[in-house]
């Protein structure tokens, strides 16, 4: 019987950590910005992330956004698609 109780968290309406939807939105926006702003200045990337998060009603954590911007600006630019 104990093995079945472990599956109860997988059911519809199972408990999730607070803020899980916010993190999904942050991940989505950061991935979008990573595809479009690689290799650009950190300030430009920070602004793009903040603008993208504002659309979803997410108030960004400035330290987290700075870390994302620093990592994205260090990436090489993608070649133009044909």
List the SSEs and their pairings.
Layout: H1 2-6, H2 20-36, H3 42-55, H4 62-74
Word description of this protein:
It is a single chain. The protein is mainly alpha-helical and 82 residues long. It is built from 4 helices and no strands. It has helices at 2-6, 20-36, 42-55, 62-74. The radius of gyration is 18 Å and the shape is globular. The N and C termini lie far apart (58 Å). The model is unreliable at 1-9 (pLDDT under 50).
Summarize the structure.
The chain has four helices and no strands. It has 82 residues and is mostly helical. The longest helix has 17 residues.
Fill in the keyword field for this structure:
82 residues; 0% strand; disordered N terminus; globular; mainly alpha; 4 helices
Give the radius of gyration.
18 Å
Helix content: 55-70%
If helices are DSSP runs of H or I spanning 4 or more residues, what is the number of helices? 4
How widely separated are the two ends?
58 Å
